[in-house]
Amino acid sequence: MEERTKSRGRKARAAERSLDSSASEGAAPAPTKKRTGQVETVGELLHWSYACHAAASAAAQAGLARYDTRCWMIRAKLFKGLRAGTMKVGSLFADVRDMPRDRCVYCGATPPPKLHGDHLIPRHRGGPESGDNLVWACRSCNSSKSARDLLEWYASKEKFPPLLLLRRYLKLAMAEAEARQIMGAKLVDRPSVTFSIEHVPVKYPQPSEFGPPFEAGVM
Fold it and tell me: CA 150 to CA 199: how far, in whole Å?
């Protein structure tokens, strides 16, 4: 009996380590059946991206150039907890409170004479008309982004969005999906949402590729 218990314990630890097996690879890996049980629903997609975000934020805050085992452990624990409902994302209040108001959230510039309000998820797509969805941008960035979604805009520039903004965006997306009760909706069914579901990242670059600290959202 004791030997069987030890065997089950070894298998469980091996399964947990499978989530960290990519520590020696390049970028944070995309979800696979082995690592996540396969991302098939809206909830799994958003939870996986948010868990990857937590790992990326931890790496950036620690000044790491590459992800390490601790980052993979953070990702694995959070993804498992979000899926099981034993862990929750933080409130949007902290994200709004910590967002700079004296410079552009996209480029960090402090242009005269003023900044312009911009919606992360465009109003014409149904994005909320609330402070949670509103940021301050310089005239240049505001004009460049225009009415595009945050993720669409960065994809068009072939750049990864700042972590600080991406965290807020993912929370907005999860709040919408939960309110509409579509977290369990299958991705293959192409559920109608206001956020850019096709651009939600499942693979994050190495911390060294995020650019300046402000761009990485480490503030």
Answer: 9
Alpha-carbon distance of 14 to 66, in angstroms, equals 23
Name the amino acid, one letter, at 109: A
d(CA 95, CA 100): 10
CA dihedral 96, 48, 197, 64 (to 10 degrees): 60
Residue type, 187: L
CA distance 32 to 79: 13
pTM of the predicted structure, to 2 decimals: 0.80
**What span, in angstroms and rounded, lies between the C-alpha atoms of 217 and 219?**
6
**How many CB atoms lie under 10 A from the CB of residue 191?**
16
The residue type at 125: R
Q: Which of 173, 200, 155, 201 is nearest to 95 (CA)?
A: 173
- Cis ω for the linkage preceding 113 (within 30 of 0): yes
Nearest-Å Rg of the Cα atoms of the chain is 19
Tokens for 44?
A: 């799994």
Tell me the pLDDT tens digit for each residue of 115-156.
889 999 999 889 988 889 999 899 999 999 999 999 999 999
Q: Could you give phi then psi for residue 137, rounded to 5 degrees?
A: -135, 155
Q: Closest Cα to residue 48, out of 214, 201, 157?
A: 201
Q: Which residue has the tokens 């399964």?
A: 15
Among 62, 76, 86, 61, residue whose Cα is nearest residue 28: 76
